[in-house]
Amino acid sequence: MQRPRFELPEALVMEILSKLPVKSLTRFNCVCKRYDGKTFHTYFSQLSTEKDQNYIVKQNIHLPLFKNDVPCVYGASHGLLCLHDSSTDKAAIWNPSTREFKILPPSSVQRPSYLPCIKGYRTLNDVSFHHIAFGFDSKTDDYKVIRFVTLTFDISEEGEIYRDFEFPDVLQVELYSLRSDSWKEIPFPNYKPTYIILGNNYIDGISYWQTITGEYDGFREIILSFDLRNEKFSILSIPEFVGYSPKYYISLLVFNGSLSVIFYLSKETYTSLDLWVTNDGVWTKQFSIKSIPPFVHPLGFGENGKLLLISSKKEIFLVDPSTQELKELEIMTYQDHFLLSISLHAYVESLRNI
């Protein structure tokens, strides 16, 4: 005898599913597409504080992407990661929880193939992409990717082609909308980001980059920001005493949901760090860390305000500012990877569709 079939209301089904762990739901996903062994790979080390354990590596995710290109992670938002290969225009948004993967379309922004000049004309030699950021626009319920584009030209004169550094590169800014699934060009700001270190300096719909202003001995560090909601650039100053000097290093990080600046001096025997946090443009010194290993770079903050650092040897350290306690983490960073391609992002499991 056939049992009667009961159908639950969709609202009740969604409520039940929402209470299940993502892993329980994704057990029924199957990926059958395979890649050959000649592809480059991106690796992810997942850190966890579950069961009151301190930053345990749960797994290393080995992900072949983009065939012969090498993408890096340029941001995380609501469980989605943005991947991009800076040497090409290839970009993607990926949900590791559901394994859903969306390749972004090529840009439709016009790029001149040549430009006239006094010596003849300049031909387009190279297009590179950098200072990529990814975030969520709550105003339009849309995910957006912003990237800076550099067009490099060569001089073509009497059959010869050569580089003339008197001619500046042509700069563009492109913005991608997931909702429209398209790119558009936006006006280039008066400043351009100056550092290529990866990170996810995105807070509440605003992305941040380091830049400088002034000339010669009047250089000064400032912060360039971009609001994804109104699609406008702005400038923010940093703590007054921090100037521009080759002796010091500055990194932008997110600390407890606020924009922060780490100001550090690295010597052969030790490194000292000072953290400043801004609230409505007012900077307050949060803490100092003394005598940690030399030649380290801040990666970002984990739970409880603990700072993760990476050394020139690609060792990962965790330091507690309140106790000054330093601990090396057992994380494989893959020695063949370029140091600046290693980044830290806050990630949460998500069932969001792309």
UniProtKB/TrEMBL annotation:
UniProt cross-references to InterPro entries, sorted A to Z: F-box-assoc_dom_typ3, F-box-assoc_interact_dom, F-box-like_dom_sf, F-box_dom, Gal_Oxase/kelch_b-propeller, SCF_F-box_component
Pfam families: F-box, FBA_3
Annotated PROSITE patterns: FBOX
Domain of life where this protein originates: Eukaryota
Stored SUPFAM superfamilies: F-box domain, Galactose oxidase, central domain
Every F-box domain range: 2-47
Protein name as annotated: F-box domain-containing protein
Phylogenetic lineage: Eukaryota, Viridiplantae, Streptophyta, Embryophyta, Tracheophyta
